[in-house]
Structure formats: structure tokens, C-alpha cells
Automatic annotation (TrEMBL):
One of its GO terms (cellular component) is plasma membrane. It is a peripheral membrane protein. It comes from Planobispora rosea. Coiled coil: none annotated. Belongs to the ABC transporter superfamily. It holds the Pfam family ABC_tran. Keywords: Antibiotic resistance, ATP-binding, Cell membrane, Membrane, Nucleotide-binding, Translocase, Transport. It is found in: Cell membrane. This is ABC transporter. One of its GO terms (molecular function) is ATP hydrolysis activity.
Length: 309
């Protein structure tokens, strides 16, 4: 058995999850420290949610070692769950209760007194910016409000560890940014966050450290910035050519080239210099965009496809 760091809230070695003949998680190792915002980045089907379900003690590992809060999920599942906050991928709020009641009723499941449940609910209504909707039923709420309520509910037991599975999927940009601001406040308080996402900007905004998953395996690990520095270049040039233009071979030596269905990505440390070289070689793109590298470029390099495939 491997040695666990005394500071790890999550410790996994050789963690495997199979469903029949299908291996969803294929022998991953990871450690998450207190106060860390840790992310699982990858496309649908990469194994992120299966890993989160094992960490949340609702799905038992097929093989490998897993310790959550220093305990064994197989033997101590109920004790671990009592100290977790979970925001599932799909909202499962009670439509028959109003916003405040969704919080107070859930708090009672953790053995909180009625007075303590009310106190926590009032604090969380302010945190989630839902004070003016406290007596509203769930159904009329916007998608962003429902997600904020679901996250507030996950905090009602003052958990040691908060699990967020695709927290902003389906939200419009404004709602996503408001949710990011709420999660950043949690991070500032020292709350340990573990989230899955396939949005590279979300991972860059929220995560101190993350793993990139593909096919049930971890293919890279590090901070967002270190991953970009390791697997990409400072800048990326996006080129589009008219259908009749043959650019084959004419971009060699300028930088790494990744052809996508709708554009060509040219990786270079100096994007403007790369564009000048493209023109010098007699190529005239119909459009040119020079931008900084992102985690999506990292994922494309590691797996050969974009995050949203």
C-alpha cells in the first residue's frame, strides 16, 4: 500500500472503475490538499464523473486504493458523506419546497437543529444572492439561480470538501461568471473544491491544479499555466484558407500545425512573426487570429481533438 500524505483530503493510487467490460476509470493516481481547488478537465466520457462518484462514496471502486478525509469509502461511506458537500451535474432540488425550505430541509438530514438549520439557510441565501427569492418555488428560477441554490445546499453542513460536477454546464455567460465569483469566494475562505469541467476557461479561472483526463486515464497534471507552458506555445495563430488554396507542406518549419475541420492552428512563440512568414511564403489566408495559448490547445495536443468533441 502506498504512503498517504498526512495533508491529503483525497488520496488515490491505481484507482479503477469498470462497468461490465467497459473501463471508465483506468488506474489513476491523485492527491488533493486542504484548501486546494482541484479540477478534472476532459470531454464527455473521459471518466471525470465516474471518478467524482467514487470520491463522493456513491460508487465503489473496482480496484485500487482510495482514501477520502483519511477514511476508506467502503467501510466509512456514511461518515465521509456527512462531511462532503455535493453539487451534482443535474440539479435535484425539491420543486415542492421554496428556496429557503430547500436549504433548511436538507440541513435537517445532517442532524442540525431547526434553529441551526435556519441560521445556515439565512447565511447561504446571502452567499448565493438569493435573498429576494427566498420564498419562491424552484421551478420559476433561472438556470443560474438553480445552480447557485444547489451549491448553497451543498454547503449547508459546512463540509470539509465540496464536489462540483460540471457546475456551469448549460448556463449563459453572465450566469457562469456570477457562479465563478461565488466559487472564488469559497476558495478564498479556504474551502477545498474538487470540480469537473469541459470548459477550459472555467478550469483556468478556478483551479489551482488540475488533471487532464482522456479515455479513463490521466494524461497530464499541473497548474493551468504550467500545463500550457509544457504542452503548448506562448501563442497560437488561427488561419482560415479558401477551399481552393492548397497549403499542404507550405507551413512546415513555421511551427507545429494542427488542421481542424474549419481552420488551421499554427503554434508559435511569436504569432505575428509566424503570420509574416505565412505571407512571405505566398499564402493568403482569408482570416487570421493571433491569440494566447489555452488549455484547449493543451488538450488538442494531448488527445488530438478539442475539449467539446
Amino acid at each position: 500500500m502506498s504512503e498517504q500524505s498526512p495533508h491529503s483530503l483525497i488520496h488515490a493510487r491505481g484507482l479503477v472503475k469498470r462497468f461490465g467490460d467497459f473501463t471508465a476509470v483506468d488506474g489513476i493516481d491523485l492527491d488533493v490538499a486542504p484548501g486546494e481547488a482541484f479540477g478534472f478537465l476532459g470531454p464527455n466520457g473521459a471518466g471525470k464523473s465516474s471518478t467524482m462518484r467514487m470520491i463522493g462514496c456513491v460508487s465503489m471502486p473496482t480496484a485500487g486504493e482510495l482514501r477520502i478525509l483519511g477514511m476508506d469509502p467502503v467501510r466509512d461511506g456514511s461518515r465521509i458523506r456527512a462531511r462532503l458537500g455535493v453539487c451534482p451535474q443535474l440539479d435535484n432540488l425539491d420543486p415542492d419546497l421554496n428556496v429557503r425550505e430547500n436549504l433548511t430541509t436538507y440541513a435537517r438530514y445532517f442532524g442540525l437543529s431547526k434553529a441551526e438549520a435556519r441560521r445556515r439557510a439565512e447565511e447561504l441565501l446571502d452567499f448565493a444572492q438569493l435573498r429576494d427569492r427566498a420564498t419562491s418555488k424552484v421551478e420559476p428560477l433561472s438556470g443560474g439561480m438553480k445552480r447557485r441554490l444547489t451549491i448553497a445546499r451543498a454547503l449547508v453542513n459546512e463540509p470539509d470538501l465540496v464536489l462540483l460536477d460540471e457546475p456551469t454546464t448549460g448556463l449563459d455567460p453572465q450566469a457562469r461568471h456570477l457562479l465563478w465569483e461565488r466559487l472564488f469566494r469559497l476558495k478564498q475562505r479556504g474551502t477545498t473544491l474538487v470540480l469537473t469541467t469541459h470548459y477550459m476557461d472555467e478550469a483556468e479561472q478556478l483551479c489551482d491544479r488540475l488533471v487532464v483526463m482522456d479515455g479513463g486515464r490521466i494524461v497530464a497534471e499541473g497548474s493551468p499555466r504550467s500545463l500550457i507552458e509544457t504542452y503548448s506555445t506562448a501563442e497560437v495563430v488561427e488561419l482560415r484558407f479558401p477551399d481552393e488554396v492548397d497549403y499542404t507542406g507550405k507551413l512546415e518549419g513555421i511551427g507545429r500545425v494542427d488542421p481542424l475541420p474549419d481552420r488551421i492552428l499554427l503554434y508559435a512563440d511569436d504569432g505575428d512573426a509566424a503570420v509574416a512568414e505565412v505571407h512571405r511564403r505566398g499564402l493568403t489566408p482569408s482570416s487570421v487570429l493571433v491569440r494566447r495559448s489555452s488549455l484547449e490547445d493543451v488538450f488538442l495536443h494531448l488527445t488530438g481533438r478539442t475539449l467539446v468533441d
